[in-house]
């Protein structure tokens, strides 16, 4: 029987990835249950989304704590009291301390709107658009001590065009975020994820065809 994993979701803002997770749980496609949503921002729209679906929320303001560790300890307490199996960072805008990382080893996922290791950190979509990349995308990875640097679970590629604005590229990427995040969590729920060093193996997953992509398309070669 498939395991229904207990999720703790960390948010700071709009929570569209949270919404994708909720929707897929409600559709029966994701074998998870959100035990708690923790927001460091009392005004996060993610909290409205949570209310609509009757999911318990806890606001933990980082500014109420004298150190990053104290803030993280409070989150650890809440998550452990609910026996959370997997911590899901969904637009959570705080860097986690080693204290938090060690409390949930390889049990914290993050999503980043770029093809890591390119464009880690903030404003990834703007930096990619300004750089003139021909492809961009998003990455779900396990969190580690670095910024967006942990083992990669799944990536999606989207084309980027020379007339893309930051917003247009971000919207194209976000659509794929909403697909790959529930998928990564489902792989975890199915117990199919194996991490060896930097490499993540998804047991039983199909190998994609070796089809190169070109942007712009090749005309003759
Ligand atoms: C997304 O691009 C996510 O990758 C980034 O923040 C953006 C907003 O996410 N970390 P959400 O709508 O709050 O899920």
Describe the SSE topology.
Elements: E1 5-11, H1 16-26, E2 32-39, H2 45-52, E3 57-59, H3 68-81, E4 86-89, H4 98-103, E5 108-112, H5 124-131, E6 135-142, E7 152-159, H6 166-189, E8 193-196, E9 199-202
Parallel strand pairs: 1-2, 1-4, 2-3, 4-5
Antiparallel strand pairs: 5-6, 6-7, 8-9
Helix pairs in contact: 1-6, 5-6
The structure holds 5-O-phosphono-beta-D-ribofuranosylamine.
- The CATH homologous superfamily of the largest domain is termed Formyl transferase, N-terminal domain
Gyration radius, to the nearest Å? 18 Å
Main-sheet strand order equals 3-2-1-4-5-6-7
Regions with little confidence, pLDDT below 50 for 5+ residues: none
Q: Strand portion, in percent?
A: 15-25%
What gross morphology would you assign? Answer: globular
CATH architecture of the largest domain: 3-Layer(aba) Sandwich
Bound molecules: 5-O-phosphono-beta-D-ribofuranosylamine
What does this structure look like?
With 221 residues, the chain is of the alpha/beta class. The protein has 2 domains: 1-105, Formyl transferase, N-terminal domain (Rossmann fold, 3-Layer(aba) Sandwich), CATH 3.40.50.170; 110-216, 3-Layer(aba) Sandwich (Rossmann fold). It contains 6 helices and 9 strands, in the order E-H-E-H-E-H-E-H-E-H-E-E-H-E-E. It has helices at 16-26, 45-52, 68-81, 98-103, 124-131, 166-189, and strands at 5-11, 32-39, 57-59, 86-89, 108-112, 135-142, 152-159, 193-196, 199-202. The strands form 2 sheets. The protein has a 7-stranded mixed beta sheet with strand order 3-2-1-4-5-6-7, with helices on both faces. The longest helix is centred in the last third of the chain and has 24 residues, at 166-189. The chain is globular. The chain starts with a strand and ends in a 19-residue tail after the last strand. The mean pLDDT is 96. The structure holds 5-O-phosphono-beta-D-ribofuranosylamine (GRF). The site of 5-O-phosphono-beta-D-ribofuranosylamine has 13 residues, from helix 1, strand 5 and helix 6.
């Amino acid at each position: 029987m498939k395991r229904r994993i207990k999720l703790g979701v960390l948010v700071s803002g709009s929570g569209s990835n949270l919404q994708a997770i909720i929707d897929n749980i409600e559709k029966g496609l994701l074998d998870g249950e959100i035990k708690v949503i923790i927001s460091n921002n009392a005004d996060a729209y993610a909290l409205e989304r949570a209310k609509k679906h009757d999911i318990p929320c806890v606001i933990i303001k980082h500014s109420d704590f004298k150190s990053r560790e104290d803030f993280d300890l409070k989150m650890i307490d809440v998550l452990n009291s609910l026996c959370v199996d997997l911590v899901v960072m969904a637009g959570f805008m705080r860097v986690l301390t080693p204290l938090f990382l060690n409390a949930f080893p390889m049990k914290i996922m993050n999503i980043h709107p770029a093809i890591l290791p390119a464009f880690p950190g903030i404003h990834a979509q703007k930096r990619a658009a300004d750089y003139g990349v021909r492809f961009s995308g998003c990455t779900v990875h396990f969190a580690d001590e670095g910024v967006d640097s942990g083992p990669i679970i799944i990536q999606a590629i989207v084309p980027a065009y020379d007339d893309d604005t930051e917003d247009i590229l971000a919207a194209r990427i976000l659509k794929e975020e909403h697909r790959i995040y529930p998928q990564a969590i489902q792989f975890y729920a199915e117990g199919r994820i194996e991490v060896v060093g930097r490499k993540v193996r998804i047991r039983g997953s199909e190998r994609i065809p070796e089809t190169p992509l070109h942007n712009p398309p090749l005309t003759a070669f």
